[in-house]
Amino acid sequence: MNPENLSAEALSLFNHLPPEGQREAVRLAETLGDEEAVYLATLRAMPKRRRQFLFALSKRKWGL
């Protein structure tokens, strides 16, 4: 994973991940794009209730 390839938002998220989350993002970047890896690792690092709330909002707003 190259930090220069990340947007400012993705880089900020990566920097705020706990060390295990950062390692997961680096591992995921081997098969996904760098930004996708950071966003997925961020979602996985979130508490379950917060993640469920976020998905409920997305479903309501965009029908996802």
Structural class: mainly alpha
Strand content: under 5%
Report how far apart the termini are: 29 Å
Tally of DSSP β-strands? 0
Low-confidence stretches: none
What proportion of the residues is helical, as a percent range? over 70%
What's the tally of helices?
A: 4
Q: Could you give the order of the helices and strands?
A: HHHH
Overall morphology: globular
List keywords for this structure.
64 residues; globular
Could you describe the 3D structure shown?
The chain has 64 residues and is mainly alpha-helical. 72% of the residues lie in helices and 0% in strands. It contains 4 helices and no strands. It is globular, with a radius of gyration of 12 Å. The protein starts with 7 loop residues before the first helix and ends with a helix.
Topology of helices and strands:
Elements: H1 8-16, H2 19-28, H3 34-45, H4 48-62
What's the gist of this structure?
By secondary structure, the chain is an all-alpha fold. The protein has 4 helices and no strands.
